[in-house]
User: Fold this.
Amino acid sequence: MSPNGNLIRELVEKHGRSRTSLMPILQGVVERQNYIADYDLTDIAKELDLSAAQVYGTATFYSFLDTVPRGKYIIRVCKTITCDMHGKKTIVQTLENMLKIKVGETTQNKKFTLLETNCLGWCHKSPAMLINDEPYTELTPERIHDIIADFMNKS
Amino acid sequence: MAELVQRVDLIFGEYSDEKYKVLEETLSRSNEDIIKDLLNSGLKGRGGAGFPTAMKWKYAAEQPVKEKYVVCNADEGEPGTFKDREILSKVPRKVFSGMAICAKVIGAKKGFIYLRGEYRFMLPALQVELKEFHVYAKKLKLDFTIEIKMGSGAYICGEESALFESMEGKRGEPRNKPPYPTVSGYLSKPTVINNVETFVNVVVICRIGPVQYRKLGTQDSRGSKVFSVSGDTPKPGIYELELGMPLVRFVEEFGDGDTKAVQVGGASGFCVPMKKFKDTIIGFEGVPTGGSMMIFNSSRSMYNVLHNYLGFFEEESCGQCTPCRVGCQQLKKGIEAVKRGDKPVVYLDQLMKLSETMKITAKCGLGQSVANSFSSIVNNFKEEMIY
Assistant:
């Protein structure tokens, strides 16, 4: 049995075994452990009576359904035009310096992953980013320092 | 500063004193009456495409099938658009009421809100409101429930058929049309899918009547519209304004005095340069918009703007059809090569032809509309593409 059999079964019980449950199940796995491992994909396929390819196909289509290990806190900085115009580059640099990683990387302690993403819908309060589900807007390097310092103190 | 454009307060206007009063009153009316009112109101879909709402509902109502669905498209992903989040957080009851009225008219028992993954933080508050809605629906003897389905960060899922695919647990790849959703939508059943704002407009029309509603806007663009204003403006934000106004008035109100271009309708919309502000109408007879208004001043490089849009499309293309998958990449590589001087200026003409080909051959709105921003930026700001 794979290490996550219980989580998958719990999600399947909650959402059901039909194909329409696949997205909520995949989202549930990400919510719990930040990414979907290969063994999770095959487990879900077995439970839903789908081919592993179908589950893999759906999972890899969506940018928020990560299939590679991610940190506990996933930072997604918006790179679309308005945020880009209003200082996104400085925000990313500040984050890179503080976390000592580049965009696309995860810190060694598996706490933070830094990513860029497309329009988050906060153009009027740009630049913006998400940390997991929570939006942070009207960012400045000073605010980034405060926000990240807070997260560094969290477990 | 004097107000240059007329503010409207229908969408965000206060709720009636009694909860779900408009819904209760509307439920006692005949379906034909409601459709007639929508038709007379001139309401067109608020997601950007502008299909007459009354016709959509009528087609779905006419389907001799028992199982039908109502879907609210809250996958607001167009760059520069953020009004649906505001509507759903400020007046969710109006959205649910609009969906419930639709359910009554077409004969559906189940509705869904497809909310983009980026807005997951709204989920707890919406669930509380939904719980209350279901209590009222029961009181009104309305057999209709609403469920929220979450997206996971794919722009293409705002395309209606891709959205159904996603709800069905598949890759968000658009389907061939026809059949249209009113015949075969979610789970291949007749489905009405409308934008968040469209459902609220239905409630507004049911409350004030089509005659009053028609007084706002112009011949082809009735009613008010919620605009998302961003970019180089001293007052970015969300504004409910009358449809059909000349762009020049909009710029006088929202520009910073140095506006050189406005992107109307997001990355898939049109870029209007200063010299055309006077002759451009914001509405279905001019430049249509789902609400996105991005303002650029003279300090901005339009090459950078276009490059950003093309990077966006390149990533968000679902990859299913070749014109879009390869076209988006080649357009981006192409303008980079011209900028570097590796390709001659006339190469831009070839790229323009490519974007026209995408318009004709791409499977869905994403690939088809890349040409909108591409040609309107390249044509109007050619020197910025080269030097």
Observations:
- DSSP finds seven helices and four strands in chain A.
